């Protein structure tokens, strides 16, 4: 009877959500004479050639008149036309007349700096929803700041126009409520410092995965790499095709990217996907090595209590750091110090202002320190490690950040957040002292440290800043190469730090035997030993192996996780020899149905998961709405089989797993 009620509930939600469809996409015959990105009150990039485009009859001549100048072009065989205008210096307003089969007049055009803001919900958060946003909105009268929000649209193929109409809007107290908070604070600072109009084009979708923002061909190339083997994407390409492709080749100064929260399940792939996305966008925009500023993930969840906490957020922050270090045209916006236990921290002031500072110093030539301290190298000095940084600015200091107030410095404040480990791989808190522009770290219990980490946790406590008020980026390094270790080129498999023992085992979903399961069903379970930084991923046979584990008669805690499955904890796993904690005939059983929302699972199989399945019901792999996390049996289709699997353990939580 209970299962029947659950099934009725599931089916009701499936019916409800399956009635919703995406906005219709314009067909070729419906394409507009002038692309809908070009509206009254728009901002175009100053001091460069700008491209306008639209559609008309093949061979038709197009004439554009603006600022006393005339520019012409001819529609190609498909009817698409492109006309390049300018360059124009900062200023305006201008009126532009576009003439062909019809005449369109665009009024109140400004030339200034145009930035493209993209990502997920923290970028999409509108000003009134941010901290003090309502009060700020009431005084946000900045007519030189304009914004355009791309309409929501997801598609399996690149689109040329939007699914519905949007407009450029001036920033006033009555209109700013729809403007991204990060974009607002960025534009306000940039406009004030440069005395120029600023245009913000925002394409952001809450809960979106980075693979949704990569173009089709680039994504196929990524999937062909060895490290992507077995990776199942959630809605690949959809938002690139629907919300980025339509604005190309609109000329912009640069990009601000704020995303990563949803990719915690496959954090080890994030750097490759991020560099793939950046290269893809630069290629398709066709305007060279365009600047890309990456907002490093803020703190999230419980505040750090252990010297090192193996959290996916830390891995993604490292990927973001390395992406910037590997490309001089990229910039890093560190925000680990302004997070909250909520995944949507309200302080968007510092995010936007720090982004503007980075842009001013790195891309506009202002003689300011534009970055927080970035790890450069380390040297071992007996029982201590000396760490050197780039971007020390006016000097290093321990700081305190409260809300949106400026960082406060005190000469007596201790530097927090550093941890060291010896050859046994056991991290302990380190004493850290600022010494002549470097940081000297040591720990009484570690006679010969070989590894160091800073702020390595989901919500870290690190308080190292430069005196310009910008925080240091989290990092990890070891003595053997004195710099950041390379990102793994495959699934994360633990390697020993010195001698140690090995844990082996097998894991399988409970709805299928390991002998009859597919490779997709058995692979991808992430096994982590908490507190010591060792982990592994199951292979196509459901097997995992973790090496180099220090002996412990007290016992370790292991967690097993995978998107779509209820996380399982194994406690008091004593390691005094090599052990097999499960076998191929008696694997560790995992319950399916706990689906990540915005990259986070709630460790309960409940109505939140029902809604996710309902939203994606009847989709198949490569469909726009397909989500691999909802495809519980990994057969490439979300259907009644997945509903039945989730219903089996409905209302179960992680604590309900039986002890092993």
UniProtKB/TrEMBL annotation:
SUPFAM superfamilies: Carboxypeptidase regulatory domain-like, SGNH hydrolase, Type I dockerin domain. PROSITE patterns: DOCKERIN (PS51766), EF_HAND_1 (PS00018). One of its GO terms (biological process) is polysaccharide catabolic process. Residues 476-497 are annotated as: Disordered. Its EC number is 3.1.1.53. Residues 1-28 form the signal peptide. Pfam families: SASA. It comes from the Bacteria. GO terms for molecular function: sialate O-acetylesterase activity. It is an enzyme of class 3 (hydrolase). Keywords: Hydrolase, Signal. The keyword Transmembrane does not apply. Residues 588-659 form the Dockerin domain. The keyword Hydrolase applies. Coiled coil: none annotated. PANTHER family: SIALATE O-ACETYLESTERASE. This is Sialate O-acetylesterase. It comes from Pseudobacteroides cellulosolvens ATCC 35603 = DSM 2933.
């Amino acid at each position: 009877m209970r299962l029947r009620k659950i099934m009725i509930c599931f089916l009701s939600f499936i019916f409800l959500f399956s009635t919703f469809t995406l906005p219709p996409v314009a067909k070729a015959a419906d394409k507009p004479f002038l692309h809908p990105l070009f509206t009254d009150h728009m901002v175009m990039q100053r001091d460069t050639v700008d491209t306008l485009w639209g559609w008309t009859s093949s061979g038709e001549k197009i004439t554009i008149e603006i600022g006393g100048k005339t520019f012409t072009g001819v529609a190609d065989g498909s009817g698409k036309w492109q006309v390049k205008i300018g360059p124009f210096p900062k200023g305006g307003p201008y009126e532009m007349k576009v003439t062909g089969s019809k005449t369109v007049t665009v009024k109140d055009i400004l030339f200034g700096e145009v930035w493209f803001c993209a990502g997920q919900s923290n970028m999409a958060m509108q000003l009134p929803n941010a901290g003090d946003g309502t009060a700020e909105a009431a005084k946000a009268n900045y007519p030189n700041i304009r914004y355009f929000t791309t309409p929501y649209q997801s598609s399996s193929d690149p689109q040329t126009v939007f699914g519905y109409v949007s407009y450029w809007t001036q920033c006033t107290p009555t209109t700013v409520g729809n403007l991204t908070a990060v974009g607002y604070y960025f534009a306000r600072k940039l406009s004030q410092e440069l005395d120029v109009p600023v245009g913000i084009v925002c394409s952001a979708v809450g809960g979106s995965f980075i693979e949704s923002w990569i173009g089709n061909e680039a994504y196929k190339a990524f999937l062909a790499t060895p490290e992507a083997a077995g990776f199942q994407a959630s809605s690949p390409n959809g938002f690139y095709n629907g919300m980025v492709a339509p604005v190309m080749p609109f000329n912009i100064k640069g990009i601000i990217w704020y995303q990563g929260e949803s990719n915690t399940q496959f954090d080890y792939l994030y750097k490759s996907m991020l560099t793939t996305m950046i290269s893809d966008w630069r290629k398709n925009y066709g305007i060279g090595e365009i600047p890309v500023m990456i907002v490093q993930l803020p703190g999230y969840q419980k505040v750090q209590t252990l010297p090192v906490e193996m959290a996916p957020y830390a891995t993604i922050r490292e990927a973001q750091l390395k992406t910037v270090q590997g490309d001089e045209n990229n910039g890093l916006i560190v925000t680990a110090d302004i997070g909250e236990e909520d995944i949507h921290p309200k302080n968007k002031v510092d995010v936007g202002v720090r982004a503007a500072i980075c842009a001013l110093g790195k891309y506009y030539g202002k003689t300011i320190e534009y970055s927080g301290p970035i790890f450069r190298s380390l040297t071992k000095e007996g029982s201590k490690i000396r760490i050197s940084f780039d971007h020390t600015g006016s000097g290093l200091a321990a700081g305190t950040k409260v809300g949106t107030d400026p960082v406060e410095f005190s000469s007596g404040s201790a530097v927090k957040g550093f941890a060291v480990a010896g050859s046994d791989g056991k991290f302990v808190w380190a004493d850290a002292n600022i010494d002549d522009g470097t940081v000297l770290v040591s720990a009484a219990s570690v006679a010969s440290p070989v590894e160091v980490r800073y702020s390595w946790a989901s919500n870290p406590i690190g308080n190292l800043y430069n005196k310009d008020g910008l925080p240091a980026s989290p990092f990890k390094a070891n003595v053997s190469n004195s710099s950041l270790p390379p990102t793994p080129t495959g699934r994360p498999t633990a390697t020993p730090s010195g001698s140690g023992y090995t844990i082996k085992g097998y894991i399988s979903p409970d709805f299928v035997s390991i002998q009859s399961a597919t490779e997709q069903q058995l692979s991808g379970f992430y096994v982590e030993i908490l507190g010591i930084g060792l982990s592994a991923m199951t292979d196509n046979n459901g097997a995992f192996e973790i090496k180099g584990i220090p002996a412990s008669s007290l016992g370790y805690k292991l967690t097993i996780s995978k998107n779509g499955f209820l996380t399982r904890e194994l406690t008091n796993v004593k390691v005094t020899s090599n052990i097999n904690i499960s076998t191929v005939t008696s694997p560790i059983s995992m319950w399916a149905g706990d689906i990540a929302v915005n990259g986070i699972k709630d460790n309960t199989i409940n109505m939140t998961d029902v809604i996710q399945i309902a939203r994606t019901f009847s989709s198949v792999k490569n469909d726009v709405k397909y989500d691999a996390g909802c495809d519980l049996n990994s057969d490439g289709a979300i259907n009644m089989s997945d509903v039945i699997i989730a219903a089996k353990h409905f209302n179960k939580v992680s604590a309900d797993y039986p002890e092993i």
